[in-house]
Amino acid sequence: METLSFEVQIEATPEKVWSVLWNDISYRQWTTAFTEGSFYEGTLEEGTLVKFFDPNNNGMYSRVEKNIPNKEMKFLHLGEIYDGVEQPQDWGEATESYILEETESGTTLKGIIQTPEEFKGFFEDKFPKALGIVKNLSENQL
Questions:
Q1: Could you read off the pLDDT tens digit of each residue along the chain, which spans 142 residues?
Q2: What is the dihedral of CA 13, 14, 19, 20, to 10 degrees?
Q3: In the chain, where does DSSP find H-type helix?
Q4: By C-alpha distance, which of 125, 123, 97 is closest to 109?
Q5: Cα separation of 13 and 138, whole Å?
Q6: In whole angstroms, what is the distance from residue 104 CA to residue 13 CA?
Q7: For residues 3 and 114, is the Cβ–Cβ distance under 8 A?
């Protein structure tokens, strides 16, 4: 398992950054860095399952491990979805965390990912782009 860490400074409040991350419309905007047309279904309450889809209804499903509004969101990835069918995967502790820390000038957003080796390159390429979009949306939306 690989641990990847990404960070971006954003000149916006943690509340604003949180809203950009998890509001349906802005979520669809920043996740274009991973796949155009991405969206999620489900609530983001701790212990619930959430499904992440591409426009073809393929993707993955995860459990919300932690949701502390305006501070931290953590997902445990459980499996893949193909043609709407869930397929459990043995990824161990494959997690994705978003941590927001208030600073004098706004917010530090950290993304920490525990991933199998096979997905390391994908995240190293795409995650900084995604955080850049979150920064842009957070700083430029009214």
A1: 999 999 999 999 999 999 999 999 999 999 999 999 999 999 999 999 999 999 998 999 999 999 999 999 999 999 999 988 999 999 999 999 999 999 999 999 999 999 999 889 999 999 999 999 999 999 997 5
A2: 80
A3: 14-22, 24-30, 120-140
A4: 97
A5: 8
A6: 10
A7: yes
Length of the chain: 142
The tokens describing 121, both together, are 């390159």
- pLDDT, residue 83, reads 87
Secondary structure (3-state) at 51: strand
User: And the tokens for 91?
Assistant: 């990824």
C-alpha to C-alpha distance for 115 and 94, rounded to whole angstroms: 5
Dist CA 24 CA 5 (whole Å): 25
